[in-house]
């Protein structure tokens, strides 16, 4: 056992001699000089946006009138950065920002269901994609802000064929 302790100590001494012991910094007393080092970080204006799906309740049998649903837009912008949120017409042909359409997924189903997207729960302010006209304006705080999208689908007395009706609307944050 003593032999292994001596061997271990010898190995440590050989390692220190081969790699050198840590050097100590010298101390100088002839004087000193200084310089200023600027440290800088630039924050550029920026925003991110995410959207949750809007799903209307399923309808069985016949129903007429408006159906309501909501979605959330999560926006994060740098502090004091002004922004607008726009929603386009969606992916269904012939949809416009003021007359959006949901289309069926089954082959041969050409029926559509009209729907609207609004900035308020009273459905008074339509939500579009034209800055200065029908987008929602706000200013960033550096933290996440959540904006609610209010949706309203209109069912007429003539019910379309059973199907899943949908559209994909693109939300854009302009900053």
Automatic annotation (TrEMBL):
Keywords tagged on the record: Signal
Record bears the keyword Signal: yes
Domain Spore coat protein U/FanG, first and last residues per copy: 33-172
Residues that span the membrane, as ranges: none
Domain of life per record: Bacteria
SMART domains assigned: SCPU (SM00972)
Signal sequence extent: 1-25
Protein name (Swiss-Prot/TrEMBL): Spore coat U domain-containing protein
